Amino acid sequence: ERGGYKHFMLKEIHEQPGACAQTLQVLVGERGFDLTPWGLPPELLRSLSSVHLVACGTSWHAALVGKFYLETLAGVPCRVDYASEFRYREPLVPPSSLVVGITQSGETADTLAAMRLAKDKQALVGSICNVRGAMAERLSEVKLPTSAGPEIGVASTKAFTSQLVALLVLALAWRRARGEADEALERRLFHLPYDLQQALHTDSSVEGVAGELQHARNALYLGRGVLYPIALEGALKLKEISYVHAEGYPAGEMKHGPIALLDEDFPVIGLCPAFELTEKTLSNLEEVRARKAPVYVVGDGEHPRLREIAQRLVPLPRLPWPLLPIVAVVPLQLLAYRVAVLRGCDVDQPRNLAKSVTVE
Ligand code: M6R
């Protein structure tokens, strides 16, 4: 059942090209970027004033990326909340808001409670969910399915990248509804499964990083912009399956505190692909290097200064910015997996964790 893979997590990491292709096919197919079948016809999209994304854990990281997609590509104001925070305050849900619960399982108690609260506040409620007929879908008027197939490993991988695809489709459909379709990006998205296939080939260089990281007690993941949520996700993956303390931080915030932690025993993983924030991120990584912390980079392999400061560099291809988070997370998933295996951890069943958190 693990298809020749040693663990479900590794199998599911490798299923990502297919999971994203299938998600795209089901959501968009030959029909184009029109979400009418899922409850979001163009005229409804045009009438909405804002979006609110609520989720937990890895799905919350997807929401943080989704905010970039929705605000930058679709021009719609977007707020993001942990479902467990949203539900225990008095959140302002403006009239004509869409509130979307993002959840792999569709059964996470806090996410469902946040969706119910949004419904009480007269919002249009939607879900991005991987399980057909799950409670999150039953609570929703707008149901955007991800089609990653069953995810067994406790660490979410293919469900996450499929959520990012669904959020990008939502942003592109919204943009189209406003009469400003980005046809080049719409077409480019269909090539994503090939990019993900390439990203899986980073495993050999990731193994080298894992070998050096396996005895670390701490790690810091740094990213900027749309890659900051991916830094959070890389850190969460390492924490949950390898039990190595890790934090994700926006690279520009490092000098406001965490830099005090750094020394030769505190490895830093920098996300620095070719994008508009490459130079800014690079200068933060130079500050890290100056504190003698080992620097590992997942980024632009053709950048000479980056190659110089990186103790090891996992190369990422050049991609349009919306695809970067979807591709850049793959080597971080592989890194967490490799470190966990080297440390002898139970990858698919990490201690204290359940696949779906149906209690509060
Ligand atoms: O099923 P959901 O997407 O609602 O689950 C949310 C979180 O419990 C989940 O993403 C959790 O953080 C994973 N263990 C992350 O790998």
TrEMBL record:
It is found in: Cytoplasm. Residues 40-180, 209-350 form the SIS domain. Its main location: cytoplasm. GO terms for biological process: amino sugar biosynthetic process; carbohydrate metabolic process; fructose 6-phosphate metabolic process; protein N-linked glycosylation; UDP-N-acetylglucosamine metabolic process. Keywords: Aminotransferase, Cytoplasm, Glutamine amidotransferase, Repeat, Transferase. The active site is at K355 (for fru-6p isomerization activity). GO terms for molecular function: carbohydrate derivative binding; glutamine-fructose-6-phosphate transaminase (isomerizing) activity. The keyword Transferase applies. It catalyses: D-fructose 6-phosphate + L-glutamine = D-glucosamine 6-phosphate + L-glutamate. Its EC number is 2.6.1.16. One of its GO terms (cellular component) is cytosol. Catalyzes the first step in hexosamine metabolism, converting fructose-6P into glucosamine-6P using glutamine as a nitrogen source. Homodimer. This is Glutamine--fructose-6-phosphate aminotransferase [isomerizing]. It comes from Thermoanaerobaculum aquaticum. The chain holds residues 243 to 602 of 602 of the full protein.
